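Kindly inspect the following:
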Amino acid sequence: MAAQEQYEELARQLSALGAVKRGLSRSLPQDCSPATAMLLALLKQHGDMRMSRLGELLGIDASVTSRHVAYAAERGWIDRQPDPLDKRSRQLSLTPSGGALLEEVSARYTQALATCLQDWSDADVGHLIGLMTRLRESFGECRPRLAPQHHPAEHTTRTHA
């Protein structure tokens, strides 16, 4: 197990990755936020899904998910259709223009990474990929589980004097 000082330094380095993410975000098309790019990527990866499932995958609440979905739908990147199993729900799908945008985002991200890491060896990039994959998987195993909700008794016993 790593020493406490190593975990503290790792926490500092992970916090500093915000600058890397912001730098990559600058390579996105002007009207495509990182959240929109993630939404589109999840739809491509997992296929059609309900908004509630998308919110779970994004780790955000329903109102925020709804705003992101509305934004992407207004631009024609996703389609919202009534869910055949539950007409109250919406089934989301990636449109051809959303797929094209996602390809552009991927190309821009790849180019930005290639430019910034041009002095890295293939082995170093591969090592980083392996370590980041392992880190992400470790956090997946550590996700907090929701504790079962305990409801107080509906009624209490009263004693009369």
